[in-house]
Amino acid sequence: MTDLDRTVVLSALEAGYENLTAAVSGLGDAEMMRPSRCAGWAVADVLYHQLLDARRALRAFATPSASPADRDYVSYWREFSPSGNSDFAPESDGSAAHARHVRIVASAYPPGMLAWEWSETSRAACRAARACPHEAVETQGHVLTTVDFVATLVVEAAVHYLDVTLRLAGAPPPDQASLRLVREVLAGLLGERLPADWDDVTSALKGTGREPLSEDDLRRLGSLAARFPLFG
After folding, report:
1. DSSP for 147-195?
2. Which of 4, 29, 186, 228 has the most C-beta neighbours closer than 10 Å?
């Protein structure tokens, strides 16, 4: 894979997190309960899931590792594919338990508090990302270079932004640099370029199973279609 530009990746993280803050700030209970693109999850559920990711980022930036990296910003996502054998794989018991936890905790937040905590925590995570002096960090049992780790946060935020804004018409447009990174990750997992007529949003949605592959997609992808979604 191409080398990541730390400045570009850090800016993409800030843009993605700030977009989510803008999209959810001021939402009432009814709007927080609107459906998202994540099956069975409302806007509030996805937002809390993203809050957990920002908290994890804060822990990771304070957990340096002297070991060599065993994942990069592409291979990190293999455990999140349907063929992944970790607790994070779709349809696994671990994934179901996480979904249950998210639904229970997100529903317990009073109006406005979830968006406020997300805003404060996500901005702290961005500051920590810029200040992190470590070459590599540990997270979820793996070691990544710090810039690769930040890139995984960008990808997560970009995909979930598309989830959250399904029924939020006034939300800012998604960050283009973040979506380009999602496309690069999906192509890396596939080992081939994605169809040229898929724009970056379409690539993110189809590559992660949020939109089904059309008959034309199936014909053009051939045997590669069986590997979709590339991560969930």
Report:
1. HHHHHHHHHHHHHHHHHHGGG-TTSPPPPHHHHHHHHHHHHHHHTSPPP
2. 186
CB-side exposure of 182: number of CA atoms within 13 Å?
Answer: 33
Both structure tokens of 137: 């960090």
Residue 219's alpha-carbon distances to 36, 225, 229, in angstroms, are 29, 9, 16
125 touches 154 (CB < 8 A): no
Question: Distance between CA 47 and CA 112 in Å, rounded?
Answer: 12
- Residue 176: Cβ within 10 Å count: 13
Convert the pLDDT of each residue in 172-226 to its tens digit: 999 999 999 999 999 999 999 999 999 999 999 999 999 999 999 999 999 999 9
Measured CA to CA, the distance from residue 139 to residue 152 in angstroms comes to 11
Q: What is the pLDDT of residue 1?
A: 41
Structure tokens at 174: 């998604």
Helix (H, G, I), strand (E, B) or coil at 148: helix
Which helix H or strand E contains 6, and what residues bound it? helix 6-24
For tokens 């822990």, name the residue. Answer: 59
